[in-house]
Structures are given as structure tokens and as C-alpha cells.
Amino acid sequence: MSHKVHPKIFRIKGIADWLSHGYYGKDPKKNLKEDFIIRDFLKKKLKDFNVEKIEIERFSDKMNIIIYSSRPGLIIGRGGEGVERLRLITLKEVFKKNKLTLKELRDLSKRTKMEIKEVSNPWASAELVGQWVAQKIEKRNPFRKTIKQAIEKVMVNRNIKGVKFEISGRLDGSQIARKECLEKGRLPRQTIRADIDYALTEARCTYGTIGIKVWIYKGEIFEQ
Question: What CATH number does the domain located at 122-220 have?
């Protein structure tokens, strides 16, 4: 059996960074658990809002939660009321699962800020492309036709050099599970300087779960 590593892990601090970073104080275990609860809750809550990633920045006196989405207007709401409501229910979730006291909750609420940023080109994001394919498969669209459409939409972008899809499960409801791969363009996996965006998404169908892996190659980045 081969040992497979997430493409981003090799590139940390070179051409990529962690999604949680900053000052974690004297109790990093508690703060990291807090990050996990926040990210897990927001991913479930914003499942249909095309969220690419959730970054958490920590400082000694404040915490920023940055949500990247291709549909930011739906999250922000009228006059920003959607963001404030989302911030409050997220803090309530942390209060319940991390077993905070009321004093700790009030302190966390004062120093927590939530931002919504727009993803300008969703077809250059492996996560958003994977979500789009998963939504189509859940609506019973043929998987091969859907992936070919996704490949064409991704390769239209000039900065994209190559794309690969790997889909596995009971494809189109077949009795026996199998795996199929489709790719187009270049996808060099031998050099760490290759900027490869990777994502794993799942389509929840009546006949079972379909796993979708997406690799998007955006050229090479040389460290300064």
C-alpha cells in the first residue's frame, strides 16, 4: 500500500500556510479545540453557501474568523445582520462543547470578530469545484458528464495548467462500487514548488456516499 500525503502539508510555510495561526497563549490545547469546534460547526451550518475555507487568526486580545465564500451576500444578509447572528450562534456552540463559564463566554464574545471575504474565481478553487460536482451528483446527474463539464469550466481559466478528478463509490447507483479518474492538462507531482490545490468532498446520495477528489494545478511558485 502506498502512503498518500495531502499536497498542502509539503508546502506549509513555503507557498502555503495553516488555516489556524497566531498567538495561542499558555493553553494551546483548549484554543485548538475551540478552532476545531468553530470550523466544524460553520462548515455544517454554511453547507449550501459555497464556503471555500475558514481561517482563524488569534492575537493576545482578539480573534478573527474569516470565511471565504463565492456567495458572500447570502451570509452577510441585509445590513450585516446575518454575520452577527452567525457569530452569536457560533459562540453558543463553543460555549456548549468547550464547557466555558459565562465569564469566559462574555470575554470571548468581546474579542471575537467575523469577516466574510469573496472568492473572485470559484472555478480556480478545488474545494468549490468539488462542492459543485457533489451537488450535481446528489441531483442524479450522470457523473461522467458532470465531471467533463467541470473540467471544461476549470480549464477555461488562463492560470490553470491542469486538473484531475478521482470519483469513487456506487457511481450512478451501480451495484458494485468502483473508482474512475479523469484529467486534463499537466499535473506534476514530483516538485514541491508546483502550486496544487487539492480538496476532498462527498456527495450524499440515496444509494450511498460518493467520494470526489479534485486536484488543480496553477503553475509553479519559486520561493524568494
Answer: 3.30.1140.32
